[in-house]
Design brief:
Layout (H helix, E strand, L loop, with lengths): L1 E4 L14 H9 L3 E5 L10 H7 L2 E3 L2 H7 L2 E3 L6 H4 L7 E4 L7 H10 L2 E4 L14 H18 L21 E5 L3 H12 L3 E6 L2 H10 L4 E5 L2 H7 L5 E4 L25 E4 L20 E4 L2 E4 L9 H22 L1 H7 L1 H4 L2 E4 L2 E2 L2 H7 L11
Parallel strand pairs: 1-2, 1-4, 2-3, 4-5, 5-6, 7-8, 7-10, 8-9, 10-11, 11-13
Antiparallel strand pairs: 6-14, 12-13, 14-15
Helix pairs in contact: 1-2, 6-7, 10-11
Length: about 375
């Protein structure tokens, strides 16, 4: 199969979908890999390293899309890329369709086959291609939150871990999944007073068992959220409903109940956000203030640490990419239900129910195309 790896053009997105090591593995399976010039530079991989691994370097994004049967990316295509995607081309990347209708309709119009990293799902309901970036984003949410709690950055002027004789910051984490667990570990390690909320009692029991003593668990509901936001300094939104839009757990009217300078970090922003006042921001302009509350809503947080993120992501995606390239997407999805669940759009039809529901559009089962 001919595989194209374009350079990411989203604002401050420095990750790359395939490393030189990945090129070697794909080449060993008999595939041709075309990498756009400088695609790996942001993650620390030079064109020469790709060439040594067996890839062909192409000068432009247009040539990379034009030659490829399968496109491997990190982030969803943005508007300048829509016209480059061809009918029947397989695009393997993060899409997060449910949060952005224009992208969904553009991919339907392209006639491409869109297989989304974020909905590839194992039998135990885990999301193997979302986990590594959720781990990065969860840890970064605390790193960034701690920075923006500083007064010059617009926060309350609170040191996350406090000092002897002064209480540490209070951190509230909404969601006890991969993002929330990693955020809680990081915040606890920095000495904060942490509360993690979830709707699942079994999950809260598990977290209560494994977390250090400065992490408390609490049932998530509107009453409890309203109580806790009044005295917490950093609030992290870490809610995920696979393939669907995130629910708003913090509404606009709740902001006035928070202390001025409270920092909100919404990791769920690329699925629409679990904070009503959330809107996607970039690493170039990451924050804004509403009602005295600082919002950090960068939609590609792991893009700020591309070396770590690229290695973590490609460790997870490469085995699936090899299956798709070796067998073709139809046979690979027939043989592996995990990949079947990753299919979101095929030849103009939505085949993932959560996306269809998000925009009230027709849904067709993916099996119809296999």
């Amino acid at each position: 199969m001919i595989i194209g790896v374009p350079k990411e053009i989203k604002n401050n997105e420095n990750r790359v979908a395939v490393t030189p090591a990945g090129v070697i593995e794909l080449s060993k399976n008999g595939h041709q890999i075309y990498v756009q010039s400088t695609a790996g530079l942001g993650s620390g991989f030079a064109d020469e390293q790709y060439e040594e691994a067996g890839a062909t370097i192409l000068p432009t994004i247009e040539e990379t899309y034009a030659i490829a049967e399968m496109i491997m990316k990190v982030k969803e295509p943005i508007e300048p890329e829509y016209k480059l995607i061809k009918k029947d081309q397989l695009v393997f990347t993060y899409f997060h369709f449910a949060s952005y209708e224009p992208l969904t309709k553009a991919m339907m119009a392209s006639g491409a086959v869109c297989l989304a990293y974020e909905t590839v799902e194992k039998p135990d309901r885990s999301l193997p291609l979302l986990v590594p970036m959720s781990e990065v984003a969860g840890r970064m949410s605390i790193q960034e939150g701690a920075k923006y709690l500083e007064k010059p950055m617009g926060g309350r002027g609170i040191l996350l871990g406090g000092v002897p004789g002064v209480r540490p910051a209070k951190v509230l984490i909404l969601g006890g999944g991969v993002v929330g667990t990693n955020a809680a570990k990081m915040a606890a390690g920095m000495g904060a007073d942490v509360t993690i909320m979830d709707v699942s009692l079994p999950r809260l029991r598990y977290l209560d068992d494994v977390m250090p003593a400065n992490v408390n668990t609490f049932m998530s509901n509107e009453f409890n959220i309203r109580e806790l936001i009044r005295n917490h300094d950093l609030i992290v939104g870490a809610v995920l409903i696979p393939g669907a839009k995130a629910p708003h757990l913090i509404t606009r009217d709740m902001l006035k109940e928070m202390n001025p300078g409270t920092v909100l970090v919404d990791v769920a922003v690329d699925q629409g956000g679990c904070i009503e006042t959330c809107r996607p921001t970039t690493h170039q302009d990451p924050t804004y203030v509403i009602d005295g509350i600082l919002h950090y809503c960068v939609a590609n947080m792991p893009g700020a640490v591309p070396y770590t993120s690229t290695l973590a992501l490609t460790n997870a995606t490469l085995p699936y990419a090899i299956q798709l390239a070796n067998k073709g997407w139809k046979k690979a999805c027939q043989d592996n239900r995990e990949l079947l669940l990753g299919l979101n759009v095929i030849n103009g039809e939505i085949v993932y129910e959560g996306v269809a529901k998000a925009f009230n559009l027709p849904f067709a089962p993916a099996e119809k195309f296999l």
